[in-house]
Automatic annotation (TrEMBL):
It comes from Anaerolinea thermophila. SUPFAM superfamilies: UROD/MetE-like. This is Uroporphyrinogen decarboxylase (URO-D) domain-containing protein. Signal peptide: none annotated. InterPro entries: Methanogen_methyltrans (IPR052024), UROD/MetE-like_sf (IPR038071), Uroporphyrinogen_deCOase (IPR000257). Residues 240-445 form the Uroporphyrinogen decarboxylase (URO-D) domain. GO terms for biological process: porphyrin-containing compound biosynthetic process. GO terms for molecular function: uroporphyrinogen decarboxylase activity.
Amino acid sequence: MFPMPENWKELTVKERQTARLQAWANAGLEFTTPEAKKAYEQRTRMISDVVQLKKPERIPIIPWVGVYPAQYNGVTVEKLMYDYEVLGDTFRKFNADFLPDSLVSCSMIGPGKVYELLNIQHYHWAGHGTPPNTSYQYVEEEYMRADEYDTLINDPSHFFQHTYLPRVVGSLGPWAMLSPWTNVIELPLVAMAAVPVGIPNVQQSYQKLLAAGQAALEWFGAVGPIENASMAGLGLPQIISGITKAPFDYLGDTLRGTRGIMLDMYRQPAKLMEAMERLVPIAIELGLSGANAANSPFVFMPLHKGADGFMSNKDFEKFYWSSLKVVLLGLIDAGAIPYIFVEGGYNQRLDIISDSGIPAGHTVWMFDQTDMKEVKKKLGGWAAFGGNVSGSLLKAGKPQEVTDYVKRLIDDVAGDGGYILANGAVLDDATAENVHAMIDTGKEYGKY
């Protein structure tokens, strides 16, 4: 847990960021060796320097890894979701063999037993809708209807409990009968609000939720020691802890779907804008709660529907960027560092995000398919950035091709610091030789 200073409200934004970085660097881990402690201190110092736009001793290498460790260890993703001993062996092996500069976490694999108990409808996962060796897959639908904006805006929590969750979580279907607890404003209303809870199928849904909670606790109890073994034994700091999304993606990914939200931009733009404004404080709190719990300054933010080709720059500024910027500023004001995973291409968006009033040295932008020379030109000296080593190169290329690409990337954009070496898309499929080539080249060629 982040130890918030007593004088927090009196600190400047930069002082709050520094307090979070220092707490993260002094995490209180019981390192297994002096070498692990030294490595942890070196890595947190390098990453902190990059965030603050300084030249570190070398470029930090922070790959964004999905289910590839299963392939590397010769097991299925499905196995990792149900057998936590194998999960631990797999991720400890990956971290030890590749030694990146941050922890490759096993937590994103997720517990299949929990998903089964809850009867998750809006995702397929390994062995349950997708092949055993694959990552999970979202099943996109309009889980919020076009005429339900007012319900969401008036009470987002009740909308999720009463409408959204019963539609996507099979075991919670009976929750559609529950009353909003904001109805309990006088003693006689307590019993009336409790009546639906007594309905047999509602009680059954709670029993299923309790069973899922127990299974989730078992999973969490396994994940913690797995993570700590690599952090304390190898000196790998945790980067990804808190997670949140742009309000447009909150709606477009989770609730309305791509088609639905694109139609809303033209058919009911005012309602869309109002809903995104309503979701801003929720998105900020979601990110901060995870960062605070893990004592990490970073809040991971995947950007989805703002990529080039989804909408014009004019619409991007109005519908996507306007509320995303407020979320970023809210996180920054709390001393957190948005760690933004820019999926697809943002070649048309660079001028907008770099000329936005967001303070320098408070964000990290990881790019997928954006021209990195242009990124350097627009973001250099304002924000840390990285990414761009393609998944196709790591899968189908040769180690020398990976080495050459990494060297060119470093030569082109990393000379002044503020740069992180990473792959551009989540790493689910690759060859070990190519992943080693990316990491090892970065460590050798990325020295300042």
